[in-house]
Amino acid sequence: MSQYQAVKGTRDIFPEEAAQWKYVEGIVHSLASLYGFSEIRTPVFEYTELFQRGIGATTDIVGKEMFTFQPDPKGRSLTLRPEMTAGVMRAAIQKNLLSLAPVHKLYYISELFRKERPQAGRQRQFSQFGAELIGVSSPAAVAEVMTLMMQVFESLGLHGLKLRVNTLGDTADRLRYREALQGYFAPYHSVLDEASKERLEKNPLRILDSKNPAVQEIVAGAPKLYDYLHEVAVRDFEKVLFYLEERGIAYEIDHRLVRGLDYYCYTAFEVTSSELGAQDAIGGGGRYDGLARELGSSSEVPASGFAVGMERLLMTMEKQGLFAALNPHGPVVYVVVQSQELADNGLQVAYRLRKAGIMTDIDLAARSMKAQMREANRIRASYALFIGTTEVETGLYSLKNLVTSEQTTLSLEGVMEILREPAAKEFYKL
RNA sequence: GUGAUUGUAGCUCAGUUGGUUAGAGCGCCAGGUUGUGGCCCUGGAGGCCGGGGGUUCGAGUCCCCUCAUUCACCCCA
Questions:
Q1: Stretch A380-399: mean pLDDT, rounded?
Q2: How many domains does chain A have?
Q3: How many Å does it take to go from CA A291 to C1' B74?
Q4: CB within 7 A of strand B (chain A, 249-288)
Q5: Are residues A98 and A234 in the same domain?
Q6: What is the ipTM of this complex?
């Protein structure tokens, strides 16, 4: 038991797992650009007000999950970003991106921080990849970000994911619905749990996805948001569904789907994985036309986007055995010295091989020859190159193929020629 | 923030109603093979039994506190 442990809710990613991350990130980068999105990187912390305004002061994220600190007694309060959208929108407004072009398509893979109690699929530092389509607001735009997200899942080989969609209408729709909801729940006030009562006042829509069975029973008879939508919102939603169907993307309409961040309007969606346990949301998003205004933009900046939890994505992939084919490859050749007197000769040879572009490794711990061979085996080197007194004297080296156990003697130039051959490199990708 | 769970070797875990020098498998190191890996055999290193206090002749084992872990609530990706 070491004295220092990783901070609660954080963890280390070691090489084997890092390879999985690199693989997934690679797919994200290539599909995002396939869809015309460019990468954006924003600061890890922002002024606290940004999140209070952007996400909503009554949300749990802002109310009790932020890592907030004061840089100095006079400084403004700062917060480690708990999500990306507010920061990306802030950057877009600050740079006045929309004056350069009417539409901007941005994506990111970033670390986020939320002060929650850790559990399966939930850490205090976690990462998301996501995309934001800024400048247009249309069913086609929402459908585009949804399609990108679903194609990432598909390309990674994920199966059994469930996409649920809903529409939240516009602000006026929600205001009318909100009143109707409060009216409906008023008689049940004494039956509701504390959390639900609080929601009813601050953010009545959230009561819809309460997990409390007693509350759900009452919710079943509640008025439907869908019935309070104006016609434009209904049309909008139907068009989004049309695009999904046209692209063969399976979905489920869930009128009780309410997202936890205040800035969503019209289409909202969420993807869940049955492999994940309690924290089963792997991704989600929607349209957020009102966010820019909330952040002080002088003009309307309609937008939509999504975010996917990287850890949850990786977890699901692991459960579905999607990393089985991912074979981290070792060096092509491992240089083995007969005795430590020849260590420097070995290092020189290794250097020359590396300069020649051949993946090479060598023991640095003055270990026995047997240990060196074991190491070569452990890291899956395909060849071992022996350096002994004979080799140093004659300049001819013994190269052993560790798979076939064949061994040949040749000059260093000859060795390089063999190791540079595609066949030698290909071996690793098996 | 609330509830439950688990802390014993680098890792995964045994450890009986409290009883003397705390074990296994894997991994690591060395030897068997004085210039050759994987398999096998032999040996070795490695433990404040999470930390503190208490009960007892005696605590890894019982009690209290504390720290950490994990899962769930909550919330969300």
A1: 92
A2: 2
A3: 26
A4: 259-261, 270-271, 277-284
A5: yes
A6: 0.86
